Amino acid sequence: MPAENTTPAAASPDVPRIPPLPEEQWDDALKAVVSVTGPLNIFTTLGRHPELFQSWIGFGSMMLMKGTLSGRVRELAILRTAHHRDCAYEWHHHRRIGLEAGLTEDEIAALRLDPAGHGWTDQDRAVLTAADELHATGTLSDATWAALSGFLDEHGLIELVILIGHYHMVAFALNALRVQPEED
């Protein structure tokens, strides 16, 4: 049986397929997240599936706030993934987080271009190549693995691959559900 709150498939891409959950329907887990982040549409939309949301938010929070990767590496990977998936929501939010992690406006703009066209460090280039290869082939070449192994430990290598895959999944959900960026 279709959900009552969905809109027809032919609706405008500017209209969410599943609207954010109204505040009076938030459970304790969603209230706790929103008390820290504000009522972001990603959370209030995914919060419509409470069991899935509770599992996902713990995993996502670990990757974003408690991971072993530096903020720079994490945000380079996420923003390059958002670019590949053409995910405006992910790009919008992680642009700000990337700036907070030390990326410059020029670097963020360059993430939408061929990496050869910007003066990336070898480490930055390895992260971008990893995001590009995982997007294109679903795996990493031996050369990219070797480059990443030059500055990431075992935990970092695992985490980078999982991070990129996770943000592909998040972009799929945001794009398919048509979650709209908040108005600033």
From TrEMBL:
Location of the Carboxymuconolactone decarboxylase-like domain: 50-133
InterPro entries, sorted:
AhpD-like, CMD-like
- Supply the source organism for this entry: Actinomadura macrotermitis
Q: Which domain of life is it from?
A: Bacteria
Name assigned to this protein:
Carboxymuconolactone decarboxylase-like domain-containing protein
Positions of region (Disordered)? 1-22
User: One MF term in GO for this entry?
Assistant: peroxiredoxin activity
Q: Which Gene3D superfamilies match?
A: AhpD-like
